Amino acid sequence: MSYQSLSDVVLQSPLTHAVCFDEQHNNVSYQTFQADVQRVCAFLSHQSETKWALCFDDSYQFAVSFLALAHANKHIILPGNHQPAALTELSEHFDALLHDDIIQVMPCERHIKYSNITDDVSASLSPLVLNQVCLTLFTSGSTDTPKPIEKTLQLLDNEIQQLESLWGNQVGSSEIYSTVSHQHIYGLLFRVLWPLCAGRAFSRSNFTYPEQILSHRLDHKKTLICSPALLKRLADHEGYNCYQMVFSSGGPLAIEGANQSEQKLSLRPFEVYGSTETGGVGYRQQVEPTSLWTFFPSHKARLNIEHCLELLSPFIDDHLWYPTSDYCDLLDNDQFMLKGRVDRVIKIEEKRLSLTEVEKRLMQLEWIDEAAVIPMEEAKRTVLGAVIVLSQAGNESIKKGSKGKFWLKLRSELREWLEPVGIPRRFRAVKDIPLNSQGKRQMHDLQQLFNDVND
User: Fold this and answer.
1) DSSP-assigned letter for residue 188
2) What span, in angstroms and rounded, lies between the C-alpha atoms of 389 and 363?
3) Domains of the chain
4) Domain AMP-binding enzyme C-terminal, which positions (predicted)?
């Protein structure tokens, strides 16, 4: 099938082509997909509410609902989290909710379950005017409360065209499997909208466990849309599988995860760097931690006075330079090196501290594999807390003495690099750093680890 724009992907696709498949590999044809979009669109067109939130586990029902809302000229809202309290917190942004069985407690009075839309009436669909269809996504909340980010379907369509231009030939006709949610921009683009536009069948459900990635359908061409968290966990499981392509985004991929992908999945992943605000910014295949990033061909880049990246991008705005908090070096051949985020610099006792730098120094110690450092309020002052994953040497060291003595040893070592205010005062040792489905650290989850009184 040839590539179709989002404007008419429901109108012009071959009707017998498979749009998706379930766990038993039963296909859903484009003819069924088109009929379902028409049916749901007819229902939504008669509803007075303008802003509709989507919360779905099933990616097929999500895709139908997403495009039905677009054709009904509604404003699409995509909460990144379907937990009751999180949804309630975001409820001011939407008038009604369309959902499947994933929602247990409703955050608003007006809610419709997808399976209850049984109208036999079908809407007559016209090509979408993409710059007139709006959607709201939310930042991950990794540093603060999730913030709403408004986009148009035109901006998403620009990015999808770029993805197909870059990687369409390599992905080919492979089936699309995923470990990430379609409720965030990475999953929305890579696992649902791009496959729809390019005519590639996608799985209705997510891979949840590494075993599924390693053992699933060895005889088919497959592309994997994955998170750094699951790639890293492949090391703990036996098996091998061959993928046409592997993509990783949503958080930093450790070199161990890139190595595991090559060993277990036949190739190193293409890491995509970006955000909800910017969409994709650049990509790389990581051979070593210092491997350079390449900008998407459609982008122009420059650095501001603080050495932070500014972008001129059709994924954001063709005419306005967009400032980021990404501290970078720009190199030849449209390549760049990421050096951290300026917004992870805080002030404690009038001294500027980089949380990224503190994490780096912790991970240089032989006792620590991973670290996440956050600011905390304690006795009316700001201190640092560190959530750490111990190495084998760290576990052995802590067993030989007490936790208190071990924390003192860590602080003593850190004094070689850090000023006293930059040394964490509180530590929590965990098996894994808490991550969301996109592989991102959540500030709230990290803070919760320090809520007990035992240090």
Assistant:
1) I
2) 9
3) 14-151 (3.40.50.980), 207-343 (3.40.50.12780), 349-448 (3.30.300.30)
4) 357-440
| 3-state DSSP percent of the chain in helix, strand and coil, to 5 | 35, 30, 40
Long-range CB contacts (within 8 A, 24+) of 395-401: 397/367, 398/429
Q: What is the pLDDT along the chain (455 residues), one digit of tens a residue?
A: 678 999 999 997 677 789 999 988 899 999 999 999 999 999 999 999 999 999 999 999 999 999 999 999 999 999 987 878 778 888 899 999 999 988 777 777 789 999 999 877 788 899 999 999 999 999 865 555 678 999 999 999 999 999 999 999 999 999 999 999 999 999 999 999 999 999 999 999 999 888 999 987 677 899 999 988 888 888 888 888 899 999 999 878 888 889 999 999 989 999 999 999 999 999 999 999 889 999 999 999 999 988 899 999 999 998 999 999 898 999 998 999 998 777 777 778 667 777 888 988 898 899 999 999 999 888 778 899 999 999 999 999 988 888 889 999 999 999 888 888 889 999 999 998 887 756 677 777 888 898 865 55
Q: Which residues of 231-264 are buried (b: 16+ CB within 10 A; e: fewer)?
A: bbbbeeeeeebebbbbbbbbbebbeebbbbbeeb
Q: Which contiguous run of DSSP H or E holds residue 167?
A: helix 153-171
- Compute the C-alpha angle 256/223/171, nearest 5°: 115
DSSP characters over 8-62: THHHHS-TTSEEEE-TT--EEEHHHHHHHHHHHHHHHHT----EEEEE-S-HHHH
Strand pairing class (175-178; 111-113): unpaired
